[in-house]
Specification:
- The protein is an alpha+beta fold.
- The chain contains five helices and seven strands, in the order βαααβββαβαββ.
- Strands 1-2-3-4-5-7-6 form a seven-stranded mixed beta sheet, sandwiched between helices.
- Helix 2 crosses helix 3.
- The radius of gyration is 15 Å and the shape is globular.
Length: 178
């Protein structure tokens, strides 16, 4: 684990902490997908499948190829974001921001912005200065990322099935932290 420590209400979780939080993380994932988030899952999303997703992330957290931060609100896990380091020899300067989500009951409190600011600090502490991400075109997150310093690269049509099975375009962004 890196020596980076975000400011509360954002916390960097260890692999062990993720394992003990699988229920809460799964509930967050399910709530966001049920609210229409395009984060790789289709409805209906079972509790078992949502929790299995988080259990699968533990290996990457243990080996240091990924990091997970949560935002807490009133003690509960209200939001999450992941940073996945590029594994290629020629990608030691970049990382992917993934699975930014805030529970629908905890939105409009600045948690997504705080998670995104913490990702910047974490990336820099790992000598990763080029961040990439994608989001469903037209999703509320598409308007968030430019306000966090991300630049739009373009749109890929019919990129993935949305949570309700329709094909959605994705918008690709990057941020240079130098």
């Amino acid at each position: 684990m890196t020596g980076f420590r975000p400011e509360p209400p954002v916390f960097l979780l260890s692999a062990t902490e993720v394992q003990t939080s699988v229920g809460a993380l799964g509930a967050l994932l399910r709530a966001c997908v049920e609210d229409g988030a395009g984060i790789g899952f289709l409805l209906p999303l079972s509790r078992e499948k949502a929790e299995a997703f988080w259990r699968k992330q533990v290996a990457a957290l243990e080996d240091g190829s990924a990091f997970l931060m949560v935002a807490r609100d009133e003690g509960a896990i209200a939001g999450v974001v992941m940073l996945a380091l590029a594994p290629q020899d020629n990608g030691g300067h970049r990382a992917e921001v993934a699975k930014l989500m805030v529970h629908p009951d905890h939105r409009r409190k600045g948690l997504a912005r705080r998670l995104m600011a913490a990702i910047d600090g974490l990336a820099l502490s790992l000598d990763r200065w080029l961040l990439v991400l994608d989001t469903v075109t037209g999703d509320r997150a598409e308007t968030l990322y430019p306000t966090c310093g991300y630049r739009k690269v373009g749109i890929i049509p019919d990129y993935a099935c949305g949570s309700r099975g329709n094909l959605d375009a994705t918008t690709v962004f990057y941020k240079d932290l130098r």
